[in-house]
Amino acid sequence: GLYHLLEMVDIERILQSENDYDSELFRKTSLRTKLAGVAEHVPGTATTVDIPCFRTHILGRGPQTDVNNRSLVVRIDYGSTSFLFTGDIESEVEQFIVGKMRSVLSVDVIKVPHHGSRTSSSLAFVRSIQSQKNLPFAVISFASNNRFGLPDEEIVDRWREMPARVLTTASEGAVWLQSDGRAVHRIHWR
User: Fold this and answer.
1) pTM metric for this prediction
2) Which DSSP letter does residue 189 get?
3) Sequence spans of domains, the chain
4) CA–CA distance from 59 to each of 72, 103, 128, 165, 178 (Å)?
5) Fold of 44-187
6) Distance CA 57, CA 84 (A)
7) What is the pLDDT of residues 121-158, one digit of tens each?
8) Peptide bond into 136 cis (omega under 30)
């Protein structure tokens, strides 16, 4: 994750939620971030960050009552392609996005919320995801035989029936999707 990226890549700024985690890895990553002089920024709701060649929209954070719902939701637009990164949001935040920000759900790639947990990927949210071109990619990040039993098979089926091209890190390893600004292409990494 970020801990190792800080070792390998020059990073100027990190956009993050206000979450503090009680874990050794979080403390070590925070220390490494400070030692590297990386600027940490907690964006507000509906923040847009222009970076050369692409635009990043920070849709904001969910209610402060649940650590998962405090995940940042980020949409990245590059040319006419779009990626939506949902963190660990659950159905409460999905409902807000569907109701108030439906236009951001027209994407080519979505990182499926909360590792395909039953607490996310509500039917209304999944049905709202659209791609202007082809079937969207739905990427589910999880380890095989994890202690949480993720992803929920009903949720995986929901994404497949959408229909979407479902890719999982457990079966695919690293999922590499590349945009040329006009279309998103899958790169077979292994």
Assistant:
1) 0.83
2) -
3) 1-42, 44-187
4) 7, 12, 16, 24, 23
5) Metallo-beta-lactamase; Chain A (3.60.15)
6) 9
7) 999 999 999 876 778 999 999 988 888 888 999 999 99
8) no
